[in-house]
Design goal:
Elements lengths: L1 H34 L14 H7 L4 H17 L1 E15 L15 E17 L10 E12 L5 E16 L3 E16 L10 E14 L4 E12 L5 E12 L1
Antiparallel strand pairs: 1-2, 1-8, 2-3, 3-4, 4-5, 5-6, 6-7, 7-8
Length: 245
């Protein structure tokens, strides 16, 4: 009888211990959920997030999960792109903006050519450590523009633009871009002989809409360029289509 009581007591102790373990495990899970309600796996968190978390100076779980989600959305926008453009160029000479030697040009002049074609290719990035991720980015690209016939424009450049996505519902993204390009140009049609290319700069401005699912982007772009030798200018207005990889 004494042995039976001991066995029963031993078995009871085992059940009590098992029950206590279950309670402790449940409390541990509950406490973990309370301390990490967003279930962030810090032990296996990709190191690519760390610079953005540190630079934000915010270390609460709700802030960190927001940074992670914004980074993931921004990473989807990082892409190469190629595109074509069509529009017009307005070649002009403005005496007050003259930076070259144009003694044979008197007064303001301008000519128009409605057959401007262009091509560009580059890369866009929304996970810069300098700009706010996802809503701001930048693009670097090369481009070439040429118009046929009289009043021609020939321009080839490398460009860098800042991007601002002022509308983004994860299906359609509307963006503004602004930047500068440096290259070579030849502007014809004005009352002077132009036989060779000259170094030029261009101010870029545009608005575009991208359909994420189909990788298509269409836009309206404005450019204003000027040669640094003769000081001739050209304004371009183009419609463009890009395929974003």
């Amino acid at each position: 009888m004494k042995y039976l009581i001991c066995i029963c007591f031993y078995i009871s102790c085992i059940f009590v211990l098992l029950y206590a373990d279950d309670i402790l495990d449940a409390d541990s899970v509950k406490n973990n959920e309370q301390s990490n309600p967003y279930n962030i796996d810090y032990n296996n968190l990709d190191s690519k997030y760390y610079p953005f978390i540190v630079s934000s100076g915010k270390f609460y779980d709700k802030d960190i999960i927001d940074i992670i989600e914004r980074f993931d959305e921004a990473e989807k926008k990082n892409a190469f792109f190629v595109g074509i453009m069509y529009g017009i160029n307005i070649n002009m000479f403005i005496p007050s903006l003259n930076i070259g030697d144009n003694t044979n040009l008197n007064g303001m002049q301008y000519v128009v050519n409605p057959s401007l074609f262009g091509f560009h290719a580059g890369y866009q990035k929304y996970t810069s450590k300098v700009l706010p991720i996802n809503s701001f980015g930048y693009q670097v690209y090369i481009d070439s523009s040429v118009s046929f016939g009289k009043n021609g424009l020939f321009f080839t450049s490398i460009n860098a633009d800042v991007l601002w996505d002022f509308f983004d519902n994860k299906s359609v993204v509307a963006s503004l871009n602004m930047g500068i390009g440096i290259g070579a140009t030849k502007i014809t049609g004005l009352k002077m002989e132009v036989d060779n290319y000259e170094v030029a700069y261009r101010i870029n401005l545009g608005i575009s809409t991208r359909i994420i699912k189909y990788s298509h982007r269409i836009g309206l772009y404005l450019g204003n360029l000027q040669g640094l030798q003769r000081g001739l200018m050209s304004t371009t207005i183009t419609f463009g289509y890009d395929y974003v990889f």
